[in-house]
Amino acid sequence: MFTVFWSVLHRDLLLAMRRRTDVLTTLFFFVIVVSLFPLGVGTERAVLRVLGPGVVWVAALLASMLALERLFAADYEDGTLEQLLLTDQPLVLLTLAKVTAHWLLTGLPLVLIAPLVGMQYHLTDSSVAVMMLSLLLGTPVLSLIGAIGAALTLGLRGGGILLALLILPLYIPVLVYGAGAVTVGAASLGEAQPYLTLLAAFLVAALALAPLACAAALRISIE
Amino acid sequence: MTKPWSRFAAPASFYPLAGRLIPVFWVLAAAFILIALYWGFFQTPDQLGGSNAQKDYYRIIFIHVGTAWMSMWLYAVLVAWAAVGLVFKTRLSFMMANAIAPTGAIFTFLALWTGAIWGRPSWGTYWDWDPRLTSELILFFLYIGYIALHSAIDDSRRADRAAALLAIVGLVMVPVIFWSINCPDPNQCAALHQRSGLGKVDGNILFAMLTMTLGLWMYSFATTLMRVRGIILTREAEAAWVQDLVRAQARGS
Questions:
Q1: Which residues pair with B185 in a beta bridge?
Q2: Per residue in B106-134, pLDDT tens?
Q3: Which sign, positive or negative, has the C-alpha torsion A92, A98, A104, A109?
Q4: Which residues pair with B54 in a beta bridge?
Q5: Residue B54 in 3-state DSSP?
Q6: FRET partner for B26 with CA separation of 20 to 30 A, picked from A72, A124, A193, B8?
Q7: What is the distance in angstroms between the Cα of A14 and the nearest Cα belonging to chain B?
């Protein structure tokens, strides 16, 4: 059973490595959005420190959402997805593998670039640490929930903008606690602990439930 | 499909039943709403509260509370129909879910709109990020998402099932979303702008509010059934009974 998981994961990562620009586009989208805000609201340190956590998290939401369109699209177009659905392997595991690969390619880079973004917003060291932790826990939730939307909008015209409409409201809890953690984390790491615990709880719940919904959505979209 | 309760699961037999029920619900809706309006305008106190009294403008509550309650209730009903449709594979259930969505979205919008009108004199602002307002706004987005997804898919079978799944996912997320908005700080919750309990409401106001809610509920039945009749006709346009119906109506007029 785990061989299935690994082989799908390996295949998706390999495919992405052959076309690296896709990964970099998401990352640079994130960096550009975050860099634009100081130009819009002014570069005063106090203001940036207040806005920073929210801006970074909203940018992470948008970046993760934009990348979702490609989660199933290529496999859907060349028929691979249909073949995956026809195998006697559990579809839940296949979707989980695809989402994991997707997160490694689009979510993890955001976590790693976070310190750089933190410097742009003059965040304190503990804030940056909390930001990395919260992104590490939160972005997989975004990928998992978003995968349901990606599966539902598979092959539709205007899929990207529709996906935003469906998925962004569902991202709110992660946004609230993710940004909240960074804000209170300015003083010390301990303050952010309840927020991070909640994010971890979301991650566990999403890991258990989202692949089921996503598999059901794929079956609805392809039949 | 021989059990009596499942007889009306067939669009062909539900269509005439809905046609007979619609006038009943319209009459009930009109009666309840008129009673509620009369009671709300003439049998309730002119102002509320002591030092900073709410004058006559508070009466918008009779529309506001009813639409807000119905907007939430209709989403639950929508999801129930969607779930029934996914489990029993009954086409009519999806059509019902589909017919409820616009009414629910309108109620959500009305609740926000009337709330803003009321908020201006009482809170001094049209909009405040009170958890209840924000939750209602998110509910509005959920309705819009459902309608948008359904109308973006041409194949009606896929549209029904995809939108149904989305609605169910939405309902699962609603408590989490509401909770996260209500308690942005996990250590202390309930940053509500003001608290309210039904027990503390003046009897006459409560009566008008509840009657109005009943009226709006009846109105929802009427509009949903009207809409579902339209959907049935569109979907079953090729079916023999629809053709017969069209021919019979053409002869009649």
A1: B188
A2: 999 999 999 888 888 878 888 888 888 88
A3: negative
A4: B48
A5: strand
A6: B8
A7: 31
